[in-house]
Amino acid sequence: MDIYLPIAEVSVNAPLLVALGALVGFISGLFGIGGGFLMTPVLVFLGIPPAVAVASMSNHVAASSMSSVISYSRRRSVDFRMGAVLAGGGVIGAILGVELFRWLRLLGQADLVVALSYLVFLGVIGGLMLSESLGAILRRRRGEPPPARRDRRPPWLYGLPLKMRFPRSRLFISVIPPILLGAFVGILSAIMGVGGGFILVPAMIYVLRMPANVVVGTSLLQIIVTTALTGVLQAGRNQTVDIVLATLLLAGGVLGAQFGARASSRFRAEELRAVLALIVLLVGLRMGLGLFVRPEDPFVLMSGLGG
Amino acid sequence: MIPAASPPPAVQAQAAVSAALTETNVQVNSGFRGARIVLYGAVFDPLDRPSDVVVIVRGPEQPVRIARKTRILGLWMNSRPVVFQGAPGFYIAASSRPLDEIAGFAELRRLGAGVDHLAIHAPAEQRVETRYGIRDMVVSRLGSDYLDWRRAVVRLKEKGGLYAVDERGVRFVDKGLFRAEIALPAEAPIGEYQARIVLFQEGRPVSAKLRTLTVAKVGAERGLYLWAHHRPWSYGLAAMAFALAAGWAASRVFRRD
Predict the structure, then answer these.
(1) Pair B76, B200 in one domain
(2) Scanning A22, A119, B69, B101, which has the fewest C-beta atoms within 10 Å of its C-beta?
(3) Are A130 and A274 within 8 A, CB to CB?
(4) Does ipTM top 0.85?
């Protein structure tokens, strides 16, 4: 059953998109990520113009994150105060990111920056997560005790001004690192068509040293705010949000996210992280591959004129 | 003016062509998967000279941005994009014989018949300068690669199913009566299309007709498209509100306690 998308102006298979939405939604709920880094490349592969795919993803990611953040907040695993601070940075980042993306498209370098961002960020994060989680799994198998958690947090986190108390995360730190982190993720969200959970979650664990149980829910909260803003900005500035595409994806996505959020409590955290790391690494390498392989046709048509 | 089917006597009889599209409005709705447009026409020639018919269908003009990938530091990067003007969003040249057998280079170029004869150019890359002592020469900054760029535009559009040359697209079904079928892909742009039907005799165009075809979105597709383009901010806000509400509703439905 094919359906014509009014903004993307292409005809796509509707059940396929719903199924894709459900699959990515499941992964999203399971790992507490938006899932955009998986979905955007697949949509482009299916023939949807990249600008429309990136922009419509914001709506889909916001919807599926919304549906899973509520499940997390019922389990009291959302630090609303930290989420608000991160989201404040995310708002700045999203505005910068949408403008940066417009400028890159004018220069014709949007493809390059998108591919490089995927390669570098997904590659590094995936690699680090994989080695860390595999280490944890091996130690558990051998029955070794987990390495004593170094509670000495990086001193620069504490030397900065504007300290704030985050009771649910049991932290008393400066708001500058979370704001910067939020802004950085906001920029990536606009450029890569992702929520940014794959960067937020590890950064919250390893840099901000937040307790693992509130990390996922809190990152979802930040993702909702950032992607909601990105989606509105993309629609307003670039007219690239396809509501029909977003609706098809989120029909599957919200259902998938529910099952994913439920399934997540059945697995060990480090095993989940290892699987996620593998997916992240593979997607990053796949997207970056195009930069190194001789293209079939040396010329490419760029969609859209003037941004 | 409808040309006279029978020529005035005594004077050298002039051949004429006439044609009609079976459909002049293509409606793009949610089930749109492309369309087939059938064109019927007739050649009126009292002297029955050998005739060839060329049908050229052009979609609305759409500037093309194209970049070339070059290897820099081991990475394949896009060059600065080049904008070509004058490119139709859809183009097909259907004919009763291969175009180069029907007419010469000059005639084909003048009519823009065939993808090689499309009048596309990159004005931003052109400058006027004096070369070899000749003033006001138009030179392209793309230099000798210019043709490669131009050919790439056509090649990529052909790959996308938007440009085509159909050497046997016009078939004579009866004496003087011909038929052509134009396949419009789902990706074809929205807007006014022009079908130019040209009758050739002895390599020269002797009669031509122009027919228009409208491809328009209808129903919900049209409403959404207009909303998104005319009031983008309210569209964006509504789309996001809808997405968030759907997410919230799903979590209510799935609440277990």
Answers:
(1) yes
(2) B101
(3) yes
(4) no
